[in-house]
Design brief:
- The complex is a heterotrimer of chains A (141), B (147) and C (244).
- Chain A is mainly alpha-helical and 141 residues long.
- Chain A has a single domain, classed as Up-down Bundle (3 helical TM bundles of succinate and fumarate reductases), CATH 1.20.1300.
- Chain A has 4 helices and 1 strand.
- In chain A, α1 packs across α3 and α3 packs antiparallel against α4.
- The longest helix of chain A is centred in the C-terminal third of the chain and has 31 residues.
- The termini of chain A are far apart.
- Chain B is mainly α and 147 residues long.
- In chain B, 69% of the residues lie in helices and 2% in strands.
- Chain B has 5 helices and 1 strand.
- Chain B is elongated.
- In chain C, a hairpin with a 2-residue loop joins β3 and β4.
- Chain C folds into 2 domains: 100 residues, Ubiquitin-like (UB roll); 130 residues, Orthogonal Bundle (Fumarate Reductase Iron-sulfur Protein, Chain B, domain 2).
- Chain C is of the alpha+beta class.
- A 5-stranded mixed beta sheet of chain C has the order 2-1-5-3-4. A two-stranded antiparallel ribbon of chain C has the order 6-7.
- Classes of the chains: A mainly alpha (141), B mainly alpha (147), C alpha+beta (244).
- β1 of chain A pairs antiparallel with β1 of chain B, so a sheet runs across the interface.
- The structure holds protoporphyrin IX containing FE, iron/sulfur cluster (SF4) and FE2/S2 (inorganic) cluster (FES).
- Protoporphyrin IX containing FE sits at the interface of chains A and B.
Amino acid sequence: MTGRVDELPEPTGRSLPLPERWAPEQQETIPGVSWAWQAITGVLLLVLLTLHMIANHFVVQGGLRDYQQVIDYITNPVILPLETLFLVVVSWHGLLGLRAVIFDFGLSARAERIVTRVFVAIWVVTVIYGVTLLAILVTHR
Amino acid sequence: MTDRAVTRDADPRPSPGVPLSARRRGVAGWVDVRGRRLGGVAFILNRITGLGVLFYLYLHLVVLSQLAVGPSAWDSLLKNWFLNPVFLVLDVVLLAGLLIHGLNGIRVALVGLGLVVSRQKALLGAFGTIGAIVLLIGTLMFISHGG
Amino acid sequence: MSETVTFRVQRFKQGDPASHYDTFQESTDPRTTVLDVLTRIRRVEDPTLTLRHSCFHASCGTCGMKVNGREVLACVTNVRELGTDEVVVQPLDNAPLVSDLVVDMGPFYARFNAIDRPLVRESELVPGSHPAEGIPHAERYEDCIECGICLSACPIAATDPEYLGPAALAAADRLREEPRGQQVPPALRLADDPHGAWRCHVAFECSEACPSNVDPAGHIMSLRRSLIGRRWRALRGEPVGAER
Ligand code: HEM
Ligand code: SF4
Ligand code: FES
């Protein structure tokens, strides 16, 4: 189109299309909530992981516990809930992190939903596995 | 206004047909740190250590199943494998990974919430120093306790 | 005085199966810039070399490219100060390649313009300026020169094609800081998205690379803080209204 400067249309830049993806109904329920979970569980882990590392590596004579020492450790009424919480939080944080890495590839909303469901399932299985193991150890003293 | 005639396309995009996704660097943009600065290195280290520790977590959970088998299974595993110096080295690697990830994670959490943004580089330096010191102490403790 | 530097320039034309490098031996003096050399190559040696430039003084933002692996404005990048005998010149990353050193800025502009932030910063009159007779006051433009360098330096833009990107997010935060009579919520709606402010992983590469001191990463973080504040107020039933 040819014309004089003062006849030029408004710059069309503002109406250039954004990727279709920018539709609000495709958004995660509260944007940023995954990241918030990552940060909150991360800070929790800082405490739980430090305890876990100290309790299992640094204060044990010989570096690692033998069977009887493990049983004695895990049946301690303070340790058991802490280690259970550690299991729940660390698997949540780690799987959420892997999900974030996958999401960084820019998946479709549908693919994101599938990934989320698969990861929740893996998390549930992990926690059930861990709690079962703990239960076996605590009851077979 | 001047009366200079100008030609202008209706669509100002140089090549409207090019898909928006064309020519991304892909994962190379994460791991190729040539030309990148400290923050980019911290990002990819955080990612690698996070994924590495996640892998270790599942390995760890599988190994712990031997506890359910019974005392002899666990204790022989301990004697024949885990108290070996090779595993001592792996323990140091794990500790290093955890320190890098954990400390950088705190930086990401603080800065990501809009706190200490202007001092984020100093934070990175401070955490690097703390991490190195803890790693040194931890390694010495591994050596004196284990093996 | 004159010192010869080898320039390895990435070449690509539509239809080529892949890009390749052409090598040019160029004499330089202490003040030669990368853009000086490239325009000379085009004038003297190879008129088919395509590149974008306009102002030659870091204002127009068209000469962004990668020199020795880092994103710079070629017009203010001194060749001798690079300190290498060989200088590698490549187009910006994470944008479609049009030809040689020219990338399609369309996707970048589409995001940036969607934020619709005014160009003139009314809050900051240039200190100590003496405007000419008849001009009421000096005006200061926003810092961002829309060069796309931040998007090229960003690791996340390397994989997420829908990432809004550092410059657009920084613009949204500038609009929030200083609405200048403009509507803020539409920009915040674009920014408050998994592919917006929340996609950032705090590498700060954009802020390091930005040639115009915009500090996009810092703006993304303050944007996040204000988004959290808004959400918090909404949760407690307080008016979200105030944008900062
Ligand atoms: C020591 C305490 C820890 C803290 C403070 C912490 C903190 C964080 C934070 C803030 C992030 C988000 C990074 C980002 O958005 O770029 C993150 C990511 C991640 N974390 Fe942790 N974390 C910790 C321990 C762990 C552990 C034990 C695991 C392994 C199970 C783990 C696995 C991951 C993974 C896989 C990611 C995703 C990596 C990425 O986004 O690049 N973290 N962590
Ligand atoms: S924020 Fe900086 S690097 Fe990004 S487009 Fe603007 S001036 Fe260029
Ligand atoms: S030519 Fe204008 S910024 Fe380099």
